[in-house]
């Protein structure tokens, strides 16, 4: 129920906006006709509501994971609400223009800068947003550059606030609607401010020192010893980490092992510009992490039998789960399939064999696609047996997760019993 709260809150907020808009229209005592103008005004208010949620969802306030069910879901909804709000806000000036057609001269102020400041704020906000969206959708920027441009959305928000607060509209005339919209704008600004300036100081921060470092093929296995307050993660959670001397960027990595002494281990696949720099890390280097985040562990904590399917580096969250399971007195069955292209890529194979070797109820299999072809649901059933009444947890490349989920759904597995850990937040 708790995780549905966030979605309910979103629908409820949209309903409040709609209701106050209708009340505003009748507040003058007259009647109103529904035309392009009214539609344009309604879209701008609904767009503002969605924009507030989009900013709230990007804030990383810790309660959001509980309200919406995991940071991956929070980010997915952030993208949906952000995209939808943009579409609605884009239609706002277009419909205003249609309303005054054929007088394009009069309507031009809705689309381009004039000497009317309240309109100009709106135009500035719109073009700023448009630029950010174009950069996101059509130009494949490196993640770090994309993230910086994305943060500039805060400037579009400031222009939008100035537009809403200075233009003569239902918001300026009808006080309940005014207070509600001001509240939404405060939520947006506070969220953006917290994420941009306060999160790094006030967020869930932990300090570590590199204790062990091991290169296994294209994966760096980093053992981190807590050098301050101890982190108590659930198996399979992830952290955002920054190593000293490697800039300000933080990157998410799953916790692959949790020690009783406050130590953790992560496995970093060397992939792009930032992880490539990590080959220069040394034992004794300092790191700062934020987190832990993620709700993948909730399925692990269920009492049901589990089928875990990992693709490549997607094995990391499962290692800490199997580690925990190997120490527990539970009687449920766990099947873990580690899918890689070749045996050389299975850099955690020995760890998993060691964790499961003496425990009958933990069945670990290494699956190499070079020998056995691409993994599919039929092959998985061939390895683990019937899948009814089990939870299927998958972490790997998007294409693999989506394809397996589709196949399991077509075999009658319930949607709620298929759980993903998504390594892609963009
Ligand atoms: C929840 C989660 C858990 C993850 N766990 C692991 C793990 O255990 N081991 C592992 O090797 N990888 C893990 N990843 C992926 C890892 O974060 C990226 O591979 C890494 O950040 C790539 O950085 P890069 O600059 O070297 O590569 P790039 O080539 O610059 O980026 C490759 C992709 O990684 C993602 N990415 C890059 N930078 C960031 C960032 N700062 N924040 C979020 N995403 C980013 C983007 O999707 C990008 O397209 C995880 C990702 C997520 C979201």
Task: Provide structural commentary.
With 426 residues, the chain is an alpha/beta fold. The protein folds into three domains: 2-199; 205-294, Elongation Factor Tu (Ef-tu), domain 3 (Beta Barrel); 297-421, Nucleotide-binding domain of ferredoxin-NADP reductase (FNR) module (Rossmann fold). It contains 17 helices and eleven strands. It has helices spanning 2-26, 36-57, 63-68, 71-100, 104-107, 117-138, 143-151, 153-166, 170-173, 175-202, 273-277, 296-301, 316-326, 349-356, 369-372, 377-384, 398-410; strands spanning 205-216, 219-226, 238-243, 251-258, 263-269, 286-293, 305-311, 334-340, 362-368, 390-395, 418-421. The protein has a six-stranded antiparallel beta barrel. Strand 3 and strand 4 (251-258) form a beta hairpin. Helix 1 packs antiparallel against helix 10 (175-202), helix 6 packs antiparallel against helix 8 and helix 13 (316-326) packs parallel to helix 14. The radius of gyration is 25 Å and the shape is elongated. The model has no long low-confidence stretch (mean pLDDT 93). The structure holds flavin-adenine dinucleotide. Flavin-adenine dinucleotide binds at residues 142-143, 238, 249-254, 266-269, 271-275, 313, 316, 423-426. Flavin-adenine dinucleotide (FAD) binds at residues 142-143, 238, 249-254, 266-269, 271-275, 313, 316, 423-426.
């Amino acid at each position: 129920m708790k995780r549905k709260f966030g979605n309910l809150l979103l629908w409820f907020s949209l309903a409040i906006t709609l209701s106050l808009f209708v009340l505003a229209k009748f507040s003058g005592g007259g009647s109103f006709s529904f035309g392009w103008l009214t539609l344009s005004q309604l879209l701008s208010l609904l767009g503002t509501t969605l924009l507030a949620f989009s900013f709230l969802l990007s804030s990383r306030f810790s309660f959001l994971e509980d309200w919406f069910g995991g940071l991956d879901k929070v980010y997915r909804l952030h993208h949906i609400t952000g995209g939808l709000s943009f579409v609605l806000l884009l239609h706002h000036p277009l419909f205003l223009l249609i309303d005054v057609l054929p007088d394009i001269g009069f309507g031009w102020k809705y689309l381009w800068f004039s000497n009317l400041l309240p309109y100009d704020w709106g135009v500035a906000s719109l073009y700023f947003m448009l630029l950010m969206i174009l950069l996101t959708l059509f130009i494949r920027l490196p993640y770090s550059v994309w993230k910086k441009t994305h943060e500039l959305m805060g400037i579009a928000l400031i222009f939008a606030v100035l537009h809403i607060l200075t233009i003569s509209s239902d918001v300026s005339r009808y006080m309940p609607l005014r207070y509600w919209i001001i509240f939404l704008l405060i939520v947006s600004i506070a969220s953006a401010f917290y994420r941009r300036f306060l999160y790094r100081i006030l967020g869930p921060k932990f300090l570590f020192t590199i204790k062990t470092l091991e290169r296994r093929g294209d994966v760096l296995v980093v053992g981190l010893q807590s050098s301050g307050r101890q982190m108590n993660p659930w198996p399979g959670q992830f952290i955002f980490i920054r190593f000293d001397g490697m800039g300000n960027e933080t990157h998410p990595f799953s916790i692959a092992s949790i020690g009783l002494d406050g130590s953790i281990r992560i496995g970093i696949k060397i992939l792009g510009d930032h992880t490539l720099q990590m080959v220069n890390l040394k034992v004794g280097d300092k790191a700062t992490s934020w987190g832990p985040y993620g709700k993948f562990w909730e399925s692990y904590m269920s009492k049901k039998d589990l089928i875990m399917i990992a693709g490549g580096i997607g094995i990391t969250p499962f290692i800490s789960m199997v580690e925990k399971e190997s120490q527990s007195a539970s009687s449920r069955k766990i099947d873990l399939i580690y899918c890689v292209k070749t045996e050389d890529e299975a850099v955690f194979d020995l760890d998993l064999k060691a964790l499961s070797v003496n425990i009958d109820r933990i069945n670990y299999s290494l699956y190499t696609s070079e020998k056995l072809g691409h993994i599919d649901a039929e092959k998985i059933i061939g390895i683990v047996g019937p899948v009814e009444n089990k939870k299927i947890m998958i972490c790997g490349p998007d294409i693999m997760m989506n394809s397996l989920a589709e196949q399991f759904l077509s075999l009658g597995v319930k949607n709620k019993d298929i759980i993903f850990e998504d390594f892609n937040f963009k």
